[in-house]
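dumping this here before i forget
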Amino acid sequence: MLYIIDTYAWVEYFLGSAKGEVLKKLFESEKHRFFTAECCLAEIKAWSLQNNKDFDVLFKIVRANCTILPLTEHNWIDAASVRFEQRKERKNFGMIDAILLVKQKEYSCNIITGDKHFKGLKDIIFLE
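structure:
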């Protein structure tokens, strides 16, 4: 099974929370493969700065557990359309959220997140 890990899920994992345990258990199975969109690295860095965490340590954890997905100009262009459509029903749906949906479609995989913007969408492992 393929998964894209959203920043929300990474933060819960870094905190060792009950929500983060879901991701930890998924990591234990060799039948799963994980991705993180490169734009999430900026969000993780911002979180590390706000919470006085060592980004280098967090980055090593991310790289050890998943493949970083590069983004193309077409991903960003497609994300603008996805964001526009999602905002018809989900106020404040973000561009990074839209990028994750674009990559989800590209890789035919699930997204692991607890971000409320994804609740109710297809192929979401929602951390609650």
